Amino acid sequence: MEFCKRFYRHSICLTFILFLSACQPISKEPIQRWQHSVEGAYAAALSNDGKYSVVSSIENGINLWGIEENSIIYNWSQQQDDADNLVLALDIANNNSHVLTASRTEFSIWNMETGESEGFWQISDTTVRDIAIANNASSILIGQSNGVVLHVSPNSGRRLEFLGHQEKVNSVDLLPNGRIAISGGNDFVAYIWDTQTGQVVYRFNHPSRVTYVALDPKGRFAFTADSKKSANIWDLKTGELISQLQYNNRQEVYSAVQFSDDGLFLATGAPSRKVSIWDLRTGKRLNSWRVTAREDTRPAGAVVYSIAFRDNSHILTESSSGYAELWPISQ
């Protein structure tokens, strides 16, 4: 009888543990880990091919890293003397020609071949919310808190202001050729628009503020997500919905998104350390795990800043913990 009671309690406990395990992403360790900032990073961006990473940190300023050699290629200095000047947004051109860096009120272009600065700008009366850069720095995109998205062609000095948003812009992206942009804001709308004319190509309405947008560098797909429970993958050629990400949580927030080269998968990162791989066509989550946390924070956590597909089997992540990490897509 006593044995039966112990067995019953053990079975209930085991069932409960299995239930909790099923509710959490499986604990996985990265294949490889590189430390890029000892005290954590303000921002980071990986190149789309996973060969480079640019990291903004309190101790080093802005470092461009070669991932394979794990070596610093350049150290850049954009004034970071107070909280308003911290570099909090970074982007690497799809062809690895240039890096765009931005604080709340300033932005700079850096040449990845020479290491030289190719421009420094300041803005007034508003603040920078998000940025994107085209190949060869032919154009840059600046999403602003006043609802305006600024498209600049540095060589010609041409400026275009996209005025479609009625409230603060939260996220922007740009195709590598600079011709098509996407932007999302607090007005519950994501727009895809032509940077030459400012004309809207598609308008995607959401039930709440749009928190993240992204474009597939090959021009096939677009991603939009809001603050409630709508994360969508769109056909960039037709504007039709391909799939919605399927999850049981009340909401999921995204801080990094990348499309795979073969067009089969979507990778997402979150402020909760969580990284997920999704079937692009069905929206089904295929795998998930958590990046290394910052040990000096309580509770221990990390924001996933950037994701890149290194190949069809591995992805790279950069996070606020100061680590770049290499992960298998499936285990």
UniProtKB/TrEMBL annotation:
UniProtKB keywords: Repeat, WD repeat
SUPFAM superfamilies in alphabetical order: Quinoprotein alcohol dehydrogenase-like
InterPro entries assigned to the protein according to its UniProt record, in alphabetical order: Quinoprotein_ADH-like_sf, WD40/YVTN_repeat-like_dom_sf, WD40_repeat_CS, WD40_rpt
Chain positions of WD repeats: 162-203, 203-244, 247-288
PANTHER family: TRANSCRIPTION INITIATION FACTOR TFIID (PTHR19879), TRANSCRIPTION INITIATION FACTOR TFIID SUBUNIT 5 (PTHR19879:SF9)
Protein known as: Translation initiation factor beta propellor-like domain-containing protein
Organism: Thalassotalea profundi
Taxonomic lineage: Bacteria, Pseudomonadati, Pseudomonadota, Gammaproteobacteria, Alteromonadales
